[in-house]
Amino acid sequence: MTWRQTEGPRVVLPQDAIVTAQRDFMRSKLMYSQLILEGLTTHNFDMIHEAIANMKMVTEGELWVTVDDDPEYIELTQAFKKAAVRLQEAVDTKSVDGTAMRFYQLNTTCIDCHQYIRARGYKL
Ligand code: HEC
Question: How far apart, in Å, do the first and last CA atoms of the chain sit?
Fold first, then answer.
């Protein structure tokens, strides 16, 4: 279930393979979100902790889609990262309500960025 970016030898992929890998990589955020919800509903804080750690690896991975010359996209990425850190902190307190609130805030950053990329017509 864990996506490990550093595993195995580095290979140079043809452009379309990079796009496919990037798409899967970006999409994995949704899987980690689901695991966070599962952890919240089953009171499994270890599951939430691991899911956020993996989600943060996605954000910091080199397949994360970057748009260097777009300050707004960079800001949206920062907001997402900040929300993930706050969620991680809430998990450490083992409060379901606190974690749920931070999870809600993280989800807002997902939707904000996705609305933005749709409006801009960014597509892989
Ligand atoms: C800062 C911007 C940004 C944030 C924040 C962000 N995403 Fe994404 N996401 C992207 C980009 C860029 C893509 C690739 C778009 C494409 O496929 O053309 C993507 C792709 C996806 C896809 C695949 C979409 C498709 O058409 O197949 C899903 C699902 C997704 N993200 C879910 C999430 C979830 C869930 C979160 C929050 C936990 C999130 N994203 C946060 C930028 C973002």
Answer: 24
For ligand 1, atom 6: residue with the closest CA? 110
Tell me the per-residue pLDDT of 21-53, one tens digit each, with 9 for 90 and over: 888 889 999 999 999 999 999 999 999 999 999
Of all protein residues, the one whose alpha carbon is nearest to atom 43 of ligand 1 is 113
Contact 48, 36 (CB under 8 A): yes
Q: Distance from the CA of 27 to the center of ligand 1, in angstroms?
A: 6
Are the CB atoms for 124 and 65 separated by under 8 Å? yes
Residue among 66, 40, 35 at smallest CA distance from 53: 35
Nearest CA to ligand 1 atom 25: 27
Place of tokens 């949206």: 76
- Ligand 1 atom with minimal separation from the 32 CA: 38
28 lines ligand 1 (CB under 6 A): no
Contacts of 117 (CB under 8 A, 6+ apart): 73, 123
> Rounded to whole angstroms, what are the CA distances from 23 to 28, 57, 65?
9, 15, 9
